[in-house]
Design brief:
Glutathione S-transferase Yfyf (Class Pi), Chain A, domain 2, oxidoreductase activity, 4-stranded parallel β-sheet, oxidoreductase, Cys_rich_dom, HdrB/HdrD_reductase, Rossmann fold, Heterodisulfide reductase subunit B
């Protein structure tokens, strides 16, 4: 299986553990990731606040790279990047005027028929979902994980075409195939505060604290994420939560690919398990599989 790969800015900086763990897991699964040549930022949280045209043109400029590389599908792990690409693609497909303007800006055809997918999609479907259990080397069945999808992967559903917008199960199914127990809980797609982290940090502390508390009530030992922004808010704000609410949550926040990789027997160093601010090693010791 061969896919184009758009890491985006976060996976080359603050979310290196997502980039690295995705690559080693794909290698185990026999999935080839081909990074797009000279890709550019998709605009993320900023561009669409300044210019609608810029917000659409930046993702489409990246999709325009694919034909020369012989690629028809591109995997985009960052939820914010995935959202911007899907929105841009939907915009040029449904508005001819916008499409003409974008072509003028990027000086290339839009390649709006390219298939934009999140890694959870192929991982949760055959043949990969059937291959995952055959790669498991560490028994993590006693580990209870709350799968947190955030608000961008599944919404708006007609645009993202990803999973149920209210109660998605793709990450749950992937981790269960990896031998990990996932819990039933109500905050799978409740916002953590997203980019308010800088402008309104109190909002982020409150919302992220609610997410973690609900995961604890469901009996989770850790939270699995698929979004660098969600990871940053849930992991880095726990000291602030202690200051405001009196108790440190001590809730490890891991990318789902790190959990998959650990179950596959990949070393903690290769998965960057030690990179998180809230220590994750203790949950593996708890289930007899120390990192």
């Amino acid at each position: 299986m061969r896919y184009g790969y758009y890491p985006g800015c976060s996976l080359h900086s603050t979310a290196q553990e997502f980039d690295q763990s995705l690559k080693v897991v794909c290698d185990k699964l026999g999935v080839e990731l081909v990074e797009l040549d000279k890709w550019v930022c998709c605009g993320a949280s900023a561009a669409h606040n300044i210019s609608q045209l810029m917000a659409i043109a930046l993702p489409m400029a990246n999709l325009a790279i694919m034909p020369k590389m012989g690629l028809e599908e591109v995997i985009i792990p960052c939820a914010a990047c995935f959202s911007r690409f899907k929105i841009a693609q939907h915009s040029v497909k449904t508005d001819k005027k916008i499409k003409r303007e974008v072509v003028e800006v990027i000086h290339k055809d839009c390649n709006d028929e390219a298939k934009v997918i999140h890694p959870l999609t192929p991982f949760s479907q055959k043949p990969l979902i059937s291959k995952i259990p055959t790669l498991v080397e560490r028994d993590l069945s006693e580990l209870k994980v709350a799968c947190y999808y955030g608000c961008l992967l599944t919404r708006p559903p007609k645009v993202t075409e990803f999973d149920s917008p209210e109660y998605p199960m793709s990450m749950d199914n992937v981790l269960r195939a990896s031998g990990i127990t996932t819990v039933d809980w109500p905050h799978k797609t409740i916002c953590c505060g997203a980019s308010f982290a800088l402008s309104k940090p109190d909002v982020v502390v409150n919302l992220s604290h609610n997410v973690i508390q609900e995961a604890k009530l469901a009996g989770a030992d850790a939270i699995a994420v698929a979004c660098p922004m969600c990871h940053a808010n849930l992991d880095t704000r726990q000291d602030d939560m202690e200051k405001k609410f009196g108790t440190h949550p001590q809730m490890p926040i891991l990318y789902f690919t790190q959990l998959m990789g650990y179950s596959f027997g990949i070393s903690p160093a290769e998965l960057y398990i030690h990179k998180h601010l809230t220590a994750a090693e203790k949950i593996f010791e708890k289930v007899g599989q120390p990192a």
